[in-house]
Design brief:
alpha+beta; Alpha-Beta Plaits; 4-stranded antiparallel β-sheet; two-stranded antiparallel ribbon; 2 helices; YCII-related domain-containing protein; YCII
Length: 129
């Protein structure tokens, strides 16, 4: 089963960039999970001010909007893809990640959303959800 975790927070820059200790701890956790075979991919995203676009389909047409997006209260700032045996295992790995934030950057506020990825036949019925 694959799950994606998406880290969301405000783009309020009053805190500045993440502390190096946090980045080092995240890197170490990522290496540990990669060796264990549970980490498929992970990464951080630059702020929308560094360049972002939205492509929208509406009424049979596509439109492109340039960022930054001032109306967004929260944006996705990073992600991880896990290959695990259960939803509970995905949650445990996500909790470990968030505990690093609590330890190394306690003034940061945000959340991580964890969702199972669609993988075709055998995947939970999307219509039943």
């Amino acid at each position: 089963m694959r799950f994606m975790s998406m880290v969301k927070s405000s783009e309020n820059y009053r805190l500045g960039p993440p502390p190096q200790a946090l980045m080092d701890a995240i890197n170490e956790l990522g290496q540990e999970m990669t060796k264990a075979g549970t980490m498929v991919d992970m990464g951080g995203l630059l702020p929308t001010a560094m360049g972002a676009y939205r492509v929208r389909q509406s009424r049979g047409k596509l439109s492109v909007t340039d960022g930054p997006f001032s109306e967004a209260k929260e944006v996705i700032g990073g992600y991880a893809v896990f290959d695990v045996q259960s939803k509970e295992e995905a949650m445990e790995l996500t909790m470990r990640f968030m505990e690093l934030h609590l330890k190394h950057w306690p003034e940061w506020e945000g959340e991580t959303e964890v969702r199972q990825m669609f993988e075709g036949p055998g995947c939970p019925d999307v219509q039943a959800a």
